[in-house]
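User: Here's a structure from my thesis project, written as structure tokens. My advisor, Dr. K., wants to see whether a designed sequence matches the one we expressed. Can you design one independently, without my sequence as a hint?
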């Protein structure tokens, strides 16, 4: 390993002990940057890596709120403004009991490279809270969101930092957050994305991450003169990304056969159709229910309370739930069963060991920062529409999304080829994302 990278990794480990997710994300990126660091001493001379692993700013705050019984709760809120070299900070808000500084720093760090890859002028950030909306009434979620925004509003803005949704933050939460921002500032601006259509949201934004993940897979398959037609596919998760990945797979003639959630996973041997996916959408978006209950007495649907969907033999796998949900053992099982493509919809779903196995096996493997970038890219399109005070048609947005996913694919493919790693999308995505941000940082001087 190049000495500069080794030294930075050691320093990051020493300074961020107890933040395993952040350390994992940094290691994955830095190790793959070796060829570009070797070829460009200017990055070391200007301490680019030292600056890139340190967030520009972290805001942590108290979020007090009352439940329906009048009991007071206190959660912790965060916003991490990691790198604003190429545009306003942009990245989602995650509400989940598993949220902590390590998880949000890994997500914000990844976001910097992802946003750079989208070809749009977006810096990287992330935020959220250890509050979990599951099981809470709408009124409780609203009070939490209002309290969260009462601190957050002073740190964000349409030209400063534009948050969006992430796990457990969907249309309902964005609506409440936007309402409170507007009330506090008396401004109607594009300060959040993922908004409802009636107040500045973009068509195709809900679909964008899942659709984009599948468009990216199509582009990868095209390099081997293949298509998704007839391919059997496993998907993990059953939330926003998973639902729309399944929908696009069905539209393109593929056969999605699994979904998962916190209660277990389902196997639909004959493949899902649109009506089935619509039922899952209703289950998760409206009823806020679980797969265990959904699968009961349902013909053609097997429910497994234990294990993960990666045991099913498939052509393609789409991890769309959470970080580290696919480990070395899962990767070995997928490969043994003949899986030829892994397209990450979630952020960092594969462990370093799993990534290593996919790269060594030379299957088509796309890291989330490339293949799930369709969500933030369409958020970028929502920002453009808000600035113009215009709404584009679904066809227009979808066409732009498709074009962006192709551009991300081609940039990553070409960057890998340039540095002698043809077909390695990990190296390609990291280098392509890194160079744009690093060069902007060099241009700005020591800031
Ligand atoms: P959702 O909250 O809509 O869905 C998350 C899914 O993952 C749910 O099915 C959830 O189960 C499942 N899940 C969460 N934690 C666990 C766990 N510990 N064990 C088993 N299943 C679990 O989130 P999204 O679909 O929006 O996000 C999914 C992933 O995609 C995340 O990594 C996110 O960061 C990433 N991503 C999302 C983008 C977006 O636009 N939404 C953009 C880019 C990346 P349950 O239903 O039971 O809660």
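Assistant: Designed independently from the structure alone:
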């Amino acid at each position: 390993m190049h000495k500069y990278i080794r030294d930075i990794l050691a320093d990051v480990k020493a300074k961020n002990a107890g933040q395993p997710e952040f350390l994992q994300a940094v290691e994955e990126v830095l190790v793959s940057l070796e060829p570009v660091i070797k070829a460009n001493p200017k990055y070391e001379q200007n301490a680019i890596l030292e600056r890139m692993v340190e967030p520009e700013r972290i805001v942590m705050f108290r979020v007090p709120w009352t439940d329906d019984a009048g009991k007071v709760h206190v959660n912790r809120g965060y916003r991490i403004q990691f790198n604003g070299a190429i545009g306003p900070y942009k990245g989602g808000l995650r509400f989940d009991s598993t949220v902590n500084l390590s998880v949000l720093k890994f997500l914000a760090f990844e976001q910097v490279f992802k946003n750079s890859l989208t070809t749009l002028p977006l810096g990287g950030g992330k935020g959220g809270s250890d509050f979990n909306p599951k099981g809470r009434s709408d009124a409780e979620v609203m009070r939490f969101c209002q309290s969260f925004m009462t601190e957050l509003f002073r740190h964000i803005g349409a030209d400063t930092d534009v948050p969006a949704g992430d796990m457990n933050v969907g249309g309902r939460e964005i609506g409440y957050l936007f309402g409170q921002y507007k009330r506090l500032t008396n401004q109607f601006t594009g300060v959040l994305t993922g908004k409802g259509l009636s107040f500045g949201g973009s068509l195709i934004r809900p679909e964008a991450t899942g659709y984009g993940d599948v468009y990216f897979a199509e582009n990868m398959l095209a390099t081997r003169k293949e298509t998704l037609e007839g391919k059997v596919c496993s998907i993990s998760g059953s939330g926003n990304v998973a639902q729309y990945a399944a929908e696009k797979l069905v539209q393109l003639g593929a056969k999605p056969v699994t979904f998962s959630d916190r209660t277990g996973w389902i196997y639909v041997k004959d493949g899902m159709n649109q009506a089935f996916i619509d039922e899952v959408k209703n289950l998760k978006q409206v009823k806020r229910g679980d797969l265990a209950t959904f699968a009961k007495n349902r013909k053609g649907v097997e429910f497994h309370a234990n294990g993960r969907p990666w045991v099913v033999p498939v052509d393609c796998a789409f991890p769309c739930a959470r970080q580290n949900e696919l480990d070395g053992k899962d990767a070995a099982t997928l490969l043994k069963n003949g899986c030829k493509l892994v397209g990450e919809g979630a952020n960092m779903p594969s462990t370093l060991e799993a990534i290593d196995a996919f790269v060594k096996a030379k299957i088509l493997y796309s890291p989330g920062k490339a293949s799930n970038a369709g969500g933030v890219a369409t958020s970028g399109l929502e920002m453009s529409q808000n600035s113009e005070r215009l709404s584009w048609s679904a066809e227009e947005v979808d066409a732009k999304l498709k074009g962006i996913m192709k551009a991300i694919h081609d940039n990553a493919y070409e960057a890998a080829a340039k540095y002698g790693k043809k077909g390695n999308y990990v190296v390609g995505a990291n280098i392509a994302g890194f160079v744009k941000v690093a060069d902007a940082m060099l241009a700005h001087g020591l800031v």
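When you compare it with your expressed construct, this may help: The radius of gyration is 21 Å.
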